[in-house]
Design goal:
alpha+beta, Immunoglobulin-like
């Protein structure tokens, strides 16, 4: 009885009188050509004195406040058929005084013209609906199940999503789906238009690939290759956690990216690069990465990553597990699926080690801190980022590889990081309502390894020590040699922009840094000679241990920068080679 009284005390006033409430979303595209969607939320049976409608500030999987409320306009509200006013109570939230009305309608328009995997894009040809950027949360009724109705323009013939369809006869071009809560609605994108489709099954689960936009994707055996990636990934855990899965493939003019969801993922591919072998293999790795998130992140997850607060940052020191381990597996999946030889796979891993070890910021920011600061660092890089930090994707991938080596060696090849993921999966199934803590993750790693790896994890996750790669990898039969590569450098990178040579990056501790060259300076001349081809001009007349005089323009003001030293710097160039017993190497590489 005391517990019931406490629960009643904790429930918001607006929820206390709710009786068999229902919630219905609808979206239409009367101005698709102008990038607009019209959204309506209909609530029935709430009997609440007021209702708050809140637009998310970010989207799970992309750790940056994007403030989707900025694209909302033309808001209207009604109660029992009569228009009523609303007021803004914060940057994301519209409050209406519903006064226990039996039916509430809330309507608004959203401008959607950002072509990415984490936002929505609408034009006359199609709509990619990334739902956190379109649909408001109805507080405090986010746990309610409901329906979504989508009304398509006549020229759009297809609509794809992993949401469950609602049976029943509907007008042409109208589709209806159900969701169990706002979290499910927010997490399942929709793609409408006239996209190409592919289908296959993995472990009896139907998989659909919806490809939006023109491209030369028909020139490759994408369906067969993707199926192989999915089968290889599923074999890691041994079971699929979904009833259906959808890949949304967006053909782009340039660029890329991906984002995971509970039953789908969105990936981007440059439209005419499908027959570029290297770029295509990279894209398959991206698909494997997002598919592995089916388990790691969307279900197996650190405590902070669900249930979500969509209004503010959700910090965790474990993004290196969520993303770094996943990045490690997207390359390993390509190896296991036969897209890499052992030698090519080890070359890829060596490349990631070199990228990390040639970044000055590795000395200043730990992997755990990088995870925590994702909101202000990883998604907001600037010209000094390489000097001050590291990516939890990159270092997380390297640490995951080293961790896998420790587990394989400690168990004499009987166990690997795969077994850690299986233990995490079993733990998730016992308590899906919450994620694991930092300490619980360490305990599960130790359980699988049969060895206390706390010191290893603390050193390379919480510290900034440089790993002794040769010693750490030797125990699994991999020879690691750093042959190094010498280069003469002033310690800066330049890029041509509109006929001008602009400094894009100045490396900490080298000549340009010490002399006062700044990112965004325009390089005009060196030692009295005008620059024509960028740094090639400089190194043509420079020798190691010489100094240069640079003429630059900074914010429109001309200045001389003297004594810019040219130094010989030895860069890291690690190479990995399999040298050990096949039993250990097979556990690690196959």
């Amino acid at each position: 009885m005391k517990l019931k009284r406490l629960l009643i005390f904790l429930i918001p006033v607006s929820a206390m009188t709710a009786k068999d409430p229902t919630i219905h979303y609808s979206i239409a595209f009367p101005e698709a050509h102008a990038h607009y969607a019209k959204v309506e939320i209909k609530l029935q049976g709430l009997q609440a004195p007021y209702v708050d409608f809140s637009m998310p500030s970010w989207t799970p999987g992309s750790y940056l406040l994007r403030e989707f409320a900025k694209s909302v306009e033309r808001v209207e509200a009604s109660a029992d058929g009569k228009q009523i006013p609303y007021k803004r109570i914060d940057k994301n939230t519209w409050r209406i005084a519903s006064k226990n009305a039996s039916e509430i309608r809330f309507m608004y328009h959203v401008y959607a013209s950002e072509w990415s995997v984490r936002t929505s894009f609408i034009d006359a040809d199609m709509a990619f609906m990334h739902n956190t950027s379109l649909f408001m949360q109805v507080k405090p009724f986010s746990a309610l199940p409901g329906t979504l109705t989508v009304e398509l323009p006549e020229s759009w013939k297809q609509l794809h999503t992993s949401l469950e369809p609602v049976d029943g006869k509907l007008p042409a071009g109208t589709h209806r789906f159900r969701f169990s809560s706002y979290d499910e609605l927010a997490d399942e994108p929709l793609l409408a238009g006239n996209q190409d489709t592919l289908q296959f099954e993995v472990a009896g689960v139907p998989h659909l690939v919806a490809i939006a936009g023109k491209g030369n994707h028909a020139e490759v055996s994408f369906r067969d290759d993707l199926k192989k990636i999915c089968e290889t990934t599923t074999a890691i855990i041994g079971e699929l956690p979904c009833k259906r899965y959808t890949f949304f493939v967006l053909n782009t003019e340039a660029g890329g990216g991906g984002l995971e969801h509970a039953n789908s993922s969105t990936v981007m591919m440059p439209r005419w690069q499908w027959n570029n072998a290297a770029r295509y293999k990279q894209f398959l790795g991206l698909c494997g990465h997002e598919y592995f998130h089916l388990w790691n992140v969307k279900r197996i997850r650190p405590e902070a990553l669900g249930p979500f607060d969509y209004s503010k940052e959700n910090h965790t020191r474990m993004l290196w597990v969520a993303e770094g381990i996943t990045s490690y597996y997207d390359e390993l999946i390509l190896r296991r699926a036969g897209f890499y030889t052992r030698e090519a796979y080890l070359e890829k891993i060596a490349g990631y080690i070199n990228d990390l070890e040639n970044r000055p910021g590795r000395h200043y920011l730990s992997l755990a801190e990088s995870s925590w600061d994702a909101w202000i660092r990883e998604y907001r890089p600037n010209e000094n980022s390489k000097n001050t930090g590291i990516s939890y994707y990159l270092k997380g991938q390297v640490v995951a590889f080293l961790l896998d080596v420790q587990i394989v060696a400690a168990s004499n090849g009987r166990r690997s990081l795969d077994d850690v993921m299986k233990v995490l999966w079993a733990d998730y199934k016992k308590r899906p309502e919450r994620g694991f803590s930092d300490e619980e993750f360490v305990a599960m790693v130790n359980e699988v390894a049969g060895k206390d790896l706390r010191a290893f994890l603390d050193q390379f996750v919480n510290g900034v020590d440089t790993p002794d790669y040769a010693a750490l990898l030797k125990i699994a039969g991999i020879q690691a040699v750093n042959s190094g590569k010498e280069e003469n450098t002033l310690g800066m990178q330049v890029q041509q922009e509109n006929g001008r040579w602009i400094v894009k990056y100045v490396e900490r501790g080298l000549g340009a840094w010490n002399a006062g060259v700044s990112a965004n300076d325009e390089l005009i001349a060196i030692n009295g000679m005008r620059i024509q081809t960028g740094l090639e001009d400089i190194y043509r007349v420079m020798k190691p241990d010489n100094s240069a005089n640079l003429l630059v323009s900074r914010a429109g003001l001309i200045r001389n920068i003297d004594q810019v030293a040219c130094r010989t710097v030895k860069r890291n160039l690690w190479k990995l080679e399999a040298k050990g017993t096949d039993e250990l190497l097979s556990s690690l590489l196959d």
